[in-house]
Amino acid sequence: MTPHPALSRRALLQGAATLGGVAGLTALTGGCAYLPSDAATTTTALPASAKAVIDGDLVYFNWADYLDPSVFTGFEKEYGVKIIQSNFDSMEGMYAKLQAGNQYDIVFPIAKWVQRLRAEGKLRAIDHAQLSNADQVFHSGSYFVDPWYDEKSAVSVPFTVYKTGIGWRTDKVGTMTNSWRDLWNPEAARRIYTLDDQDEALAMGALLLGYDVNTAKQSELDEIKKLLISQKKYLRGYSSDDVNNMVGGNAWIHHMWSGDFLYLRTSLVKKPENYDFQAPKEGVPINSDAYAIPVNAQHPGTAMVFIDYLLRPEIAKKNIEYLSYPMPVRDAMPAFEALAKDVPACNVELSELESGNVFRNLSADAVQRRTATWTDVRAS
Amino acid sequence: MTALDPTTAQLPAQPKGGTPRSGQHTRLWAALLALPTGWMVAFFLSSMVIVVLLSFGRTQADGQPVFSTRLDNYAQLWDPLYLRLFLRSVSYAVATTAICAVLAYPVAYVVALHGGRRKNLLIAAIVVPFFASYLIRMYAWSALLSDDGLVNSLIVRLHLGGGVQFLNTPYAVIGGLVYGYVVFMILPVYAALERMDTSLIEAGKDLYHGPWRTFWSVTLPATRAGLFGGVLLVFLPALGDFVSAQLLGGPKTFMIGNLIQQQFLEGQNWPLGSAMTVAMMIGLTVIMVGYLRATATRSREAS
């Protein structure tokens, strides 16, 4: 098998990200971000799109191990340019680097960060007409023609989509009901993990109670808090290291990300038939990330060519098989379906994309209320 | 001798009053001190100042922290939940420190007094694993101790039982902390033992007979400074740690470090996180002052 990341990127987000937070502090000081300016960001016209013409080496900024390495070498060979790679370990870390003025040609933000970066004027427009493979993701009927985070996909091109559900061991647990309630399953008491992630944990409680995944209403948060505290006696822990907890045998039931589950099942375990995944009937959080070109990119032309290259079905197929995450590239979708044929729940359907169960940018007040709730759950 | 021996030892010696020194000498010292002082001011003091200032700050609507002059963040700290977390963290840190001391003495003793020519090699063998990142070592631990991990498969294979649930317990968290910080106890204790006059031990053996009484009445008091230094070096980082609880902890092992980390990352509430940090530093200073006074008195009594 191809060398894969040993830790899921989410786990790194939780662990190493703290260092990134510290780095962020310095970066923000550099930008004088501590001086108050409540003035709303003015939405000006988008910085114009570059032409898809090679204009230098590509400065690339992404999660570690997020593309198949052969894709890099293929691009370098075909176009005669170098790819200079650097990685971030959290969205906060990526944002701080951009804020500090670092120049990258291509970045890979999660949906709500695309929205935020666009609102702050930090992204360049991407003219779909420049991309020969644009039709692969922007064909009529594609959700990404006009996604919630980026009107008309003017500054971003979709990369992966994923959902949050429940992975479990079929050889250890017999009773699953396709509900988030299964995270309270007494059959697996003390063998259950909930993701150590504020948004994911609160969304799980919210979906079970029939509330919006982004709820910041105090009364609803109080109910979610009570519900999540009631789960503690069944839990073995809170962890975002879902892959390793399953591989190590610590977890029988794990609140986990679809891509992590599929990677676990297809690449890591000896008996894949002992592992299954469900997308609970109450609804599941859906997330996605995208390619984007920062406004201060020095080689936006090469970045456009690179995006076009990544949209080629055969290249997308390589990345899908490397990552185990579905990508909305039309002619590469069968490759994912083949990969996930035994656990179709890992795929993300159009109806799920349209469900609105996505993590949105909230006001600082709302985020702080949600954090207070999550702190109470974790600390009690 | 003061309890802070290991730390003060790193500073260049101060010119003693009374000894005549040339002006050139003083200037040399000043020049040598300027670099570390400048470094400390630029990277340590200034970041401390930012934390203190930010603890009176607020968060803008767009999530950016900004300076201000309000006390809200401190008012929010009066929550019995936070106090409970603090006490939990203190109890973990105390247990960690005690276990580290019990582990460090025999190790340091054997290396210092029986290491012979291989002393430096042995010390290197203890220190080198600590070159690897703490985070990586914690991940390694969780892989080693997982239910289907190496340790458990060995237990099953040797018919010692059906496997033990190590991970996600308070014991795992304390174990991780011990593994993370034990070297900070071994080194000062080793330094103290190495400096100790071994004839004292021989005299002690003549005087008290048994090795236990010799240890309690001679070796331990003579190496007290190293122990006290080690206690500080282990206790402080263990109290503020969040990695061990995050990677090895269970549903009820949240520590004060996790709480602060949460405010800075997901919580978008750097001002509250800063206030927590400042409050914790004040609490620790109070504990430290009490500790230093108590140990200083004892050192005086001993000499």
From TrEMBL, chain A:
Q: Does Signal appear among the keywords?
A: yes
Identify the CDD domains for this entry. Answer: PBP2_PotD_PotF_like
**GO: which molecular function terms?**
polyamine binding
Q: Which Pfam families match?
A: SBP_bac_8
Its main subcellular localisation, reduced to a broad class, is periplasm
Compartments annotated for it: namely: Periplasm
Give GO BP annotations, semicolon-separated.
Answer: polyamine transport
CC terms in the record's Gene Ontology section = periplasmic space
| Residues annotated as binding spermidine | 197-200
Query: What InterPro entries does the database record attribute to this sequence?
Result: SBP (IPR006059), Sperm_putr-bd (IPR001188), TAT_signal (IPR006311)
By its UniProt entry, which SUPFAM superfamilies does this protein fall under?
Periplasmic binding protein-like II (SSF53850)
Name it: Extracellular solute-binding protein family 1
Q: Which organism is it from?
A: Nostocoides japonicum T1-X7
From TrEMBL, chain B:
* Gene3D superfamilies listed in its UniProt record: MetI-like
The way this protein sits in the membrane is described as: Multi-pass membrane protein
Q: Where in the cell is it found?
A: Cell membrane
Keyword Cell membrane in record:
yes
| TM regions (residue ranges) | 28-56, 90-113, 120-140, 171-193, 214-239, 272-292
Q: Which GO terms describe its cellular component?
A: plasma membrane
> What are the record keywords, sorted?
Cell membrane, Membrane, Transmembrane, Transmembrane helix, Transport
Under InterPro entries, the record lists: MetI-like, MetI-like_sf
**Similarity field:** Belongs to the binding-protein-dependent transport system permease family. CysTW subfamily.
Q: What is this protein called?
A: Binding-protein-dependent transport systems inner membrane component
Q: Which organism is it from?
A: Nostocoides japonicum T1-X7
